[in-house]
Amino acid sequence: MNPLLTYQQNSVETAAPGHLIVMLYDALLANIDTAAAAMSGERYDVETAHERLLRAQAIITELLGSLDPAGGTITSSLADLYEFCHHQLVEANLRKAPEPLEPARAVLADLRDAWARIANTPLETSA
Description:
With about 130 residues, the protein is mostly helical. About 75% of the residues lie in helices and about 0% in strands. The protein has one domain (about 15-120): Flagellar protein FliS (Four Helix Bundle (Hemerythrin (Met), subunit A), Up-down Bundle), CATH 1.20.120. The chain has helices at about 5-15, 15-40, 45-65, 70-95, 100-120. The chain is globular. The chain starts with a helix and ends in an 8-residue tail after the last helix.
């Protein structure tokens, strides 16, 4: 087996839940960045852009599906943000233009940073 793949699999399998979410956001942002790069410049690579946007959409769908319906306002707000971002990714793919990716990437980067802070904050214990 490929050592890099083994390392990546072990990283995912042993990560705390908060860190898993950060990993999803990292993959999501990497796919958006690759798609944007593929749609920019002289060498437009429609196949790479399309593939990466589909991967990004799948990650957003996974994040959306993981929300707890009983979560109240926070869940509803996250769902709205995920749906907005998903719509922007679909729009970029349909138009074959990177511009719709910019607001989605900004929202997702902010969410990723918030999750990273949460994941690195030790849980309070009652003494």
